[in-house]
Amino acid sequence: CLFSAMLRLPHAPLAADAADASFFVTRVIQRACQMQNSLVGVVEASLTSLLKHAAQFDFQSMRVLADFFAYWLNLWEGRMSLLEEWLSLSIPPACVKVFVRHAFEKAFRFRYRPNLLELLPDCVIPYIPPEPIPACPYTAEPPQESLPLPGAPPPPPAAELPLTVTSYPGHLEFLEVQKLLFFSFRQPGDAGRQAQKAGAHSRGASNVAGDREAALDEHEAEREECEERGEDGEKEEREEEREEREEEREERADREDDKRAWMQYKLAKLLRGRLHRKTWKKRERRSFSESAEDAVDASSKRGLNDESREEETKDSRDAFEADSGPYEDDEEGHLWTLTDLSQVLVFALLARGLKTLTHSERLVENYFPVFQFLKKGASHKAFLEMRPATLEAAGDDEDARDGDDSDTEMEEEADEEGLTKAERRSQEVEEAFLKAIFDFWKHSRQKTVLTVRHFHRFDVVSKEGVVRFVFDSLTPTDRDDSRVMELFDLLLQLSIQEFESKKETALQLSHDCSDDAERNARAKAVSAAVEALEAVQTLLHFIVVGFMRELLREDQAARRVSLHTRLLYLARDYGRYIDVSRLHVHIGDAMTDELNQLLTVSSQVQSQYFFLDREPGGLLGSLAGELDEQREGFHAEACENGGL
């Protein structure tokens, strides 16, 4: 009964407070097995019986059952013969392989990897996911090897190990970018002042015997002074102290904001300076004798008049400043493009914030204007917008003089897809961000999804951009990865939450508004809810259409089954938000029996599960009628203005 309840879709009818059905059922079964050990065999037999029909499972059923087995492995520490029974065959069924891989990927999230590896049999070695280590081409150390497993092949010889950092062009730029990435922008003086204030209360504790009498005298004097001032004086003093603390807090915040703006500006300046330039190489130091001989030869050729000497001195000073850096352009190096610089920035940020995902999220929060700067093409206009307020106040116009007028070429007409050059460039940079994220965390599904969420939170990447990247840039093998569906689930859930929040906000506003401002606020809230619903439907439409196109083009039977299960999951679990009529129009003459079945499932979910056909207004409810009234009012107003 528990397995039946867990797999009853689209929603398992379990306790309302059970957010995860698999975890809830696992805990219930574990408690029952602790009370009666013989039930463990019953659970194993039930799992085996279910896996015999795994070929007919859809995507959601397979994922729910695999999550249950992942929890079960951690609770019972892998002490079961199921794995050997399932994988001891020479060629296990494909559905069993998918099930085991998904279960292991989830199981290693909840348990220390070496401990779980010791409990697993040798037959599961080919199905163990790789260790979730980052894959950055610019890191100083080669990728770490996974822990040795029983029966695992020997490590490759040194000649086959990954190339060192000197083999990757752009490593020097990568290091310079990392130097400009900070987690916090507090000034050292702020920490010193806070420590000084905190230490003022603990100084007496270190010298209690020597300062006790002085402390008592000081306390007595303060008490007498307070009595003289009275309560009014105490209130004024507290208010003054509060105002001082507020002023200090504001000053500290201003200093942090100013330093943040400066670091963003320096990073943008570094990236803009490398655009369309060759990669750096370390500058070769010249010996003192060579530089002296060059100076003597140059002085003998120069005239003795003061004017020419001043000009040559200025030229030599400029040349010295240009040649004084530790790097120079490598004529045989790689030419930096905008997408290459975008990927270097993402790699540097993720490598800098590698300690925890919170660190990388903080870096994205601190430097998201630089990502927006790259999406604008690192143009001169965008660079001037990055200038700190203190630099503008100083009147330094060096950056303004060094500009160009290349931004005007981005204002041309749209192409065949309706995109201007600026919009196309922004999409390419956004795809470069996502490609770097997927490459960096290619061994970790969970960290890929969470990192994309951090970038989306600060509008570095958009939901539509993620969907476009998955279907246009990833290979079919990469799209078959389970992290793609987990990523789509995240994007859809975020969009649905945004719609529900805006709908609730619109419903909370009073319908009978007497004030014009209140009516305008409610009208804006209703429009925002409608736009949020359209965003959910559009995002889901793009995802479903992308998988449908793949299904129509695919020839392999096994992959067609996998794509069909994903589509069935979307049609059933998100059927409430699918615009069936829009899909009918989009498919047109390409309609097949499989696609027609999916649309039928979505229609049944809407009518038989959510009863949207009986509810006036559908998903909008009472807001739909108000929206119609607003449109009629706007239409009448437009007609009156036209008549006048």
From TrEMBL:
<dbReference type="GO" id="GO:0006406">
    <property type="term" value="P:mRNA export from nucleus"/>
</dbReference>
<dbReference type="GO" id="GO:0005634">
    <property type="term" value="C:nucleus"/>
</dbReference>
<feature type="compositionally biased region" description="Basic and acidic residues">
    <location>
        <begin position="299"/>
        <end position="320"/>
    </location>
</feature>
<dbReference type="GO" id="GO:0005846">
    <property type="term" value="C:nuclear cap binding complex"/>
</dbReference>
<feature type="region of interest" description="Disordered">
    <location>
        <begin position="391"/>
        <end position="425"/>
    </location>
</feature>
<dbReference type="GO" id="GO:0000339">
    <property type="term" value="F:RNA cap binding"/>
</dbReference>
<dbReference type="GO" id="GO:0000184">
    <property type="term" value="P:nuclear-transcribed mRNA catabolic process, nonsense-mediated decay"/>
</dbReference>
<dbReference type="Pfam" id="PF09090">
    <property type="entry name" value="MIF4G_like_2"/>
</dbReference>
<dbReference type="InterPro" id="IPR027159">
    <property type="entry name" value="CBP80"/>
</dbReference>
<feature type="compositionally biased region" description="Acidic residues">
    <location>
        <begin position="223"/>
        <end position="249"/>
    </location>
</feature>
<feature type="compositionally biased region" description="Pro residues">
    <location>
        <begin position="150"/>
        <end position="159"/>
    </location>
</feature>
<feature type="region of interest" description="Disordered">
    <location>
        <begin position="286"/>
        <end position="331"/>
    </location>
</feature>
<feature type="domain" description="MIF4G-like type 2">
    <location>
        <begin position="340"/>
        <end position="534"/>
    </location>
</feature>
<dbReference type="InterPro" id="IPR015174">
    <property type="entry name" value="MIF4G-like_typ-2"/>
</dbReference>
<dbReference type="GO" id="GO:0003729">
    <property type="term" value="F:mRNA binding"/>
</dbReference>
<feature type="compositionally biased region" description="Acidic residues">
    <location>
        <begin position="394"/>
        <end position="417"/>
    </location>
</feature>
<feature type="region of interest" description="Disordered">
    <location>
        <begin position="193"/>
        <end position="258"/>
    </location>
</feature>
<protein>
    <submittedName>
        <fullName>Putative nuclear cap-binding protein</fullName>
    </submittedName>
</protein>
<feature type="region of interest" description="Disordered">
    <location>
        <begin position="136"/>
        <end position="160"/>
    </location>
</feature>
<feature type="compositionally biased region" description="Basic and acidic residues">
    <location>
        <begin position="210"/>
        <end position="222"/>
    </location>
</feature>
<dbReference type="InterPro" id="IPR016024">
    <property type="entry name" value="ARM-type_fold"/>
</dbReference>
